[in-house]
Amino acid sequence: MHNMKTKISTLFVGFGLAASSLLTTGCIEETFPTSGATEDQLGSSAKATEALVWAMPAYLNTPLSHAENHYEWGYGAMMHIRDVMTTDFAVVASGYDWFSSWALNEGQSNNNIYPQYIWNFYWKSIQTTNNLIAAIDEDNATNAQLGMLGNGLAFRAMYYLDMAQMFEFLPSDIFPSGVNGSGHDVTNYTVPIVREGMTEADARKNPRVTRDSMAMFILDDLNKAEQYIANSPFSGNKALPNLACVYGLKARLYMWLAGDGTGEESPLPYLQKAKENARLAINLAGAPMTKDQCLSTTAGFNTLSAWMWGSQIVAEDDCVKTGIINWTSWMSNETDFGYASAGAYNMIDASMYNRMSDTDFRKLMWKAPAGTALDGKSQWLKPAYAESTPVYGSLKFRPANGAYQTPNEGAVSAYPLMRVEEMYFIEAEAAARLGEGTALLVDFMTQYRDPEYVCRATDYDDIIDEIVFQKRVELWGEGHSFFDFKRLNMSVTRGYAGTNHQDASRFNTNGRPAWMSFSIVVTEENNNSALKGWENPDPSSKYTPWVGQ
């Protein structure tokens, strides 16, 4: 423990200098060449289609990929960034928290390293998918190759759907208009689309596309994936998407398009399609996680087999070899080697925890306040963690096999990219917004989470709020609540009596916060003439923390 924390402390010294510098690459550098994988990615299997397939899940856990900052540990870091930008996820104020800039809304401008890291990670991820897609000739491919193409198309759809929702400009309390400093209205504009085989010349004049254009592109990928993916020779491996995941991605896509229902276009057709695709995913995906699975001290939220799709970290991965720059280090409060247990403890928002019913077993995934009904009822890997972890601290993500002492065992873990539980909540929200009430929510909650659950919401707004709240509880720490906050124009509320958010992050917004429309980085503008003047407004430091009544 002491040696690892000494290592953390030593490596932390360079943070200030690294954070003030700017990476110099954009999507052009990160996505070309698109005709094949690099030697570094494929090694001795450079010509093998299978190697192109496995480059996609491998890149999910690439650490120190750009500036060697310790928030760089792959797709899990993207999930964590999104979470700390919401109400739901609080972190103890600590010098070890490399993600504090996102929680504090600092350094989010287009010339800062923090948006640059996100931009670069996603474009490099898209490169891994374009490499595979470009390598397979649909007209002459075998069925197995077409199946692998389906894997690649689903992966690409996930990445573009993430980016579309993160970078799309939507009005906020700070920026009610989408007109930026250059006089362009960027409302509903997302990111450029880089296709397989696209020339560099075209990429250098490649504009942001609208929500509708992006949705058509993503849907085309998903329709092809639906046609091909069942033929994948890796259909039983949950590190790759399968047909259920394709339906799940379609359900996510249609909910994004439905928005909050206040736009000019009717959300009803999108809600119906979201509901239908969520049900298709449910029918293929298997049962939700059980109480025993969720609360297991050795296999709780670290086992790929429990989910529709996830990322499996292996002992040979560089993120494991670093010891501290990996999912378990940051997400588990119960380790002797991680950043979380060194001081950057992860907590659920206090008001969110207090709203949960004591009969909901999920409440045992966080430390109860002293003297409350669930005080001392949670199961810990060792008593010392029950003492060191703050109230509301998470027990959700366990080190692999309960190996809390060493990263070469405990960090060999998995984290979820898609769970069937999400599909139940998408279906329930879509049904409720279509006028079908709360039956689906009640069925899920009483059957799988809280046998005594009663939905007391009666009017439309309260029903939707309750469904989304239970979804936020279910998917806490999995990077999803950001999307719901943004699409439904939900307020972030961190300043209130009894809050457990750090002082400097106690922001209360009126609707979605401005920081949820990510900056298009200036390096990309410099390389891509079509992006000049089409940046999102800079949200940095535009809110004042709540200081109490």
Short description:
With 549 residues, this protein is mainly α. The chain has 25 helices and four strands. The protein has two domains: 2-297 and 420-531, Alpha Horseshoe (Serine Threonine Protein Phosphatase 5, Tetratricopeptide repeat), CATH 1.25.40; 304-418, no CATH class.
Distance N terminus to C terminus?
Answer: 41 Å
Q: What's the average pLDDT?
A: 92
Q: Which percent band covers the strand fraction?
A: under 5%
The CATH architecture name of the largest domain reads Alpha Horseshoe
Number of helices: 25
Question: What is the CATH class designation of the largest domain?
Answer: Mainly Alpha
- Let me know the largest β-sheet: 2 strands, antiparallel
Estimate nothing, just give the exact number of structural domains.
2
Relative helix content: 40-55%
**What general form does the structure show?**
globular
Low-confidence segments? 1-24, 32-46
CATH topology of the largest domain: Serine Threonine Protein Phosphatase 5, Tetratricopeptide repeat
Please count the beta strands (DSSP E, at least 2 residues each). 4
Report the order of strands and helices: HHHHHHEHHHHHHHHEHHHEHHHEHHHHH
Spatial arrangement of strands, main beta sheet: 1-3
Structure description:
By secondary structure, the chain is an all-alpha fold. It has two domains: about 1-295 and about 420-530, Alpha Horseshoe (Serine Threonine Protein Phosphatase 5, Tetratricopeptide repeat), CATH 1.25.40; about 305-420, no CATH class. The chain is about 45% helix and about 5% strand. The protein has 25 helices and four strands. The chain has helices at about 1-10, 15-20, 25-30, 40, 50-60, 75-85, 100-105, 115-135, 145-165, 200-205, 210-230, 245-260, 270-285, 290-295, 320, 325-330, 340, 350-355, 385-390, 405-410, 420-435, 440-450, 460-475, 480-485, 520-525, and strands at about 90, 310, 345-350, 415-420. The protein has a two-stranded antiparallel sheet. Strands 2-4 form a two-stranded antiparallel ribbon. The longest helix is centred in the N-terminal third of the chain and has 25 residues, at about 145-165. The chain is globular and about 65 Å long. Mean pLDDT is about 90; it is low at about 1-25 and about 30-45.
